[in-house]
Fold each of these.
Amino acid sequence: MDLFAFFGNLLWPIKWVIEAILVAFHEILTFFGMDADAGLTWVLSIVGLVLVVRAALIPVFVRQIKSQRRMMEVAPQLKKIQDKYKGKKDQFSREAMSRETMAMYKNAGTNPFSSCLPLLLQMPIFFGLFSVLRNAQLEGNAPGVGLLNAELSESFGTSSLFDIAPLHLAISTAEGNVAVIITAVIMVILMTGSQFITQLQIMSKNQSAEMKASPMYRQQRIMLYLLPLVFAFSGFTFPLGVMFYWLVSNFWTMGQQFLVIRNMPTPGSEAALAREARLAKRNQRKGIVEETPDAGTIVIEEPKNPQREQPVSKNRAKKKQGKKK
């Protein structure tokens, strides 16, 4: 059995949803006057697919943040377990260390793979979109599994960005098409840069001192430099249509992480200290009561304009002095 056909059948429900979203955005864009067969129209439809998918994954992202916070809370306990079995390489010690670690994760209600959940949930979308593109290009005017009829399938499968870079081609299948190669290289650079910035802002600004001392932090640093290799591989093998999905998704992640780190930073991190400083400065301008752990309650009052004293004549001044006596 053809491997692509096998995965195509396996991803049938996902492909149906992908086609429905693509066709919906395609119809909206053509309604507003865009060319139905233009590559840009289909690229914007893919952008719409990203927005829908990432918006649907926001609850998963919230759960991911909570799980990451719990991971940071148990970082000191994890270090104690690792120190306890440090230097012990026998099978009994390794199994005991594994049991204690898993029990600690279970009690904390988290696991080390929670941060990968949004990406794992998106992988079927990647492969589903890849399958939709491949079928539309290989089978010509054959309809998709859902709302992508024969006419739309042919339009999608033969569309090109600015009429020079077919969306179904990758570097590996470009056959000397310079436009496809240059477009793919630019997208790989943007994908790598956005992912690097996203990961770097997490590691440099949103990690507590305990987390930076843990082995997990060292693993994150390794991943920071390994991810560009992943994007290089994807840029060589994935068609431009799928890469557009990945690129826009990376930009969404970068913006989403920026907002989270700014507004909901990890306690004890550099971002948390910066947020406290911003709030203190804002409260000082507004004259709001603040509570500090060292000095108790401090009332910050806005400066009051002193009332101007009215000038008094000499006769009235003498009369006032006489009354006081």
Amino acid sequence: MSSMAVETETCALRAWAEARVIFLELTDGRIFGFPADRFKILRAASDEELKQVSLELNGHALRWEVLDEDITVNGVVAGRFQLPLPEKAA
């Protein structure tokens, strides 16, 4: 008899933005945050536009209607970003 490991996708209960960081409360209890500047469209967005984030697809995706931008929760938790971290000033 063999057993298969079941991989489940990460999903969020809520999402919000503070100081250009997007935060997610995940179903497993973790709070996860990522810099908005890691995505092209979010980098160009105002703080007010970032705050208009909503959850879609039963918590599997983030949506900014005003920006016409969608990002998967599983992707950001796995570290799949469009842009590198900005270099620190020396």
